[in-house]
Amino acid sequence: MSFNNLDTLYRQVIMDHYKNPRNRGTLADESVTIDMNNPTCGDRIELHLQVEDGTVKDAKFEGEGCSISMSSASMMTQAVKGKNIEDALEMSSIFSKMMLGEDVEDVDFDLGDIEALQGVSKFPARIKCATLAWKAMEKAVSADEEE
Ligand code: FES
Questions:
Q1: What is the dihedral of CA 111, 118, 121, 50, to 10 degrees?
Q2: Could you tell which of 74, 129, 135 is best to mutate to test the pocket of ligand 1, judged by most ligand atoms within 8 Å of the CB?
Q3: 107: domain range?
Q4: Interval 94-118: pLDDT, tens
């Protein structure tokens, strides 16, 4: 596939997650809730994570933000659901590397739709948009571990 076609495909994946967000909503009381905002623009995400026996059983989010931040939140919740905490954090670290423009092709995880965000690394001002949901997930997991 040519770069242009790949770019178009990635754009479509991002817009699909933005317009039809997966896992939008809230969870019951037993979940951990993390509210986080992007200090550069004030956009925010409220992430609800249900962790049981070291596994992310469910993840939902609410909030308002740009297409990058909201699609990234949709993709992140999809990616971490069903994963154990270690793997969820490993995915977050892979995502951070991707945002730094590092090659993540040989990782052990199927990145799925997340790959569509790799172009964000070329736009430093948007990296915080893409990592917002992942940072919230990291915080939610550590908050759960402290309980
Ligand atoms: Fe605010 Fe992207 S511009 S999160």
A1: -40
A2: 129
A3: 3-146
A4: 999 999 999 888 888 889 999 999 9
